[in-house]
Amino acid sequence: MKEVNALTKEYQMYIDGELVDSSNQETIEVTNPATESVISTVPKATLEDAQKAIESSEKAQKEWRKKSSSERAKYLFAICHEIRSNVDELATVISEEMGKTFDLAKVEVSVTADYFEYIAGWARKYEGEIVPSDRENENILIYKQPIGVVAGILPWNFPFFLIARKAAPALLTGNTIVLKPSSISPNNALEFAKILDEVGLPKGVINIVTGAGSVVGEELSKNPKISMISLTGSTGAGMKVMEKASQNITNVSLELGGKAPSIVMDDANIDLAVKSVVDSRVINTGQVCNCTERVYVHEGIADEFITKITKAMSEVTFGNPLENKSVDMGPLSSEDGLKNVEDMVGRAVEGGAKVLTGGKRGDDTKGYYYEPTVLVNVDNSMEIMREEIFGPVLPISSFSTLDEAIELANDCQYGLTSAIFTQDINHIMRASNELEFGETYVNRESFEAIQGFHAGWKKSGIGGADGKHGLEEFLQTHAVYIQY
């Protein structure tokens, strides 16, 4: 039985410009994963609530799209300013509800503000085309126009940043959006609602609905008034959304799971590779879809690399991030997540894998902690090398040639991110051309830039986010043939 905090916060949803409870008054309890205590309740929205939010956004979009892009951008700049004025407060909320280290939570809040600012800067930059016609006295104009009402289904691991990644480009391009935060970490989104109220965003332009995926998520996926669904989540969740969206041929943009490989060549800077892989693996307690999930190290340096990375992983500190702000990582976000990691490592060991460090839950009696773990004696046939771990666990295998390493890396249903560590430009170019992933990082940790393009291949997704190409996800083309 979870401990209930006497200071539990009671949040409300944001529908049609108002903070409201669910129509049946039911709530969801939110737990601090570092202490296992209930820290808040949020409304458990009904089908009626979800439909009301969709109708609100549909009505608002008719007027919102008429505003100039530069006028819409002013609201994004205002949101950016309010976020920057409340960094510590928002970071505390994020850290408390999902166990993120305080420094990383602050980075997330700051980058969220940056994202709103960056997208606002596109107001006078995105454009259509004029195409030559085959006929005399005719011009062909290709307009870029808003899609309509967007459904933004958010994950729990970077919950605040994903608000910006979905809402900022949607709003700038003349769309409105209904956001559904995860029930694991919804508090930050409801704090964000207060910012929308502060900046005077017209009602209905953003609606925020909390509740079960089986109710709210399903309605957002199949409602004919939704013109686009942008989801960040598991591949399984993406498949369910696609199935429901197919009923109305609704546009989908999906950022899904990953199983990111890092290839370490024999000419690599070993210390750089070790630091980059560790940083990439333990950030957010390993709960990041694009960070290193498996390592292939050249047999010529395997012993040295494994010795150094095992030492580095064993020195990673963890604990309650709000009690000790210097820890390297916090708990996993949920009890289910902890059990999944524990079970996957257990099955790997049963299959012959060897634990060099970690391999078990943290010693604390409270909190969903799992020790930073290194596994060897693994191969590509094992689940631990094929399925997403989503925890601070690093399986390592060796190879003899770059051909073999690329083949092993590509032998996967996912294709989100990848990395290679080498000083040889020929190795870099081959990896860039032959790795079957949306992103490849060279001699650095795996973390994307807001001006890049974050997109997955294979079962890692459809479409993408960030930069110019991510902005265009929220636009549709309208060709106009003008005779004169």
UniProtKB/TrEMBL annotation:
It holds the Pfam family Aldedh. Coiled coil: none annotated. Pathway: Carbohydrate degradation. It comes from the Bacteria. One of its GO terms (biological process) is gamma-aminobutyric acid catabolic process. Keywords: Oxidoreductase. CDD domains: ALDH_LactADH-AldA (cd07088). One of its GO terms (molecular function) is identical protein binding. GO terms for cellular component: cytosol. Residues 22-480 form the Aldehyde dehydrogenase domain. The active site is at 255. Belongs to the aldehyde dehydrogenase family. NCBIfam families: PRK10090.1. This is Lactaldehyde dehydrogenase. The lineage of its organism: Bacteria, Bacillati, Bacillota, Bacilli, Bacillales.
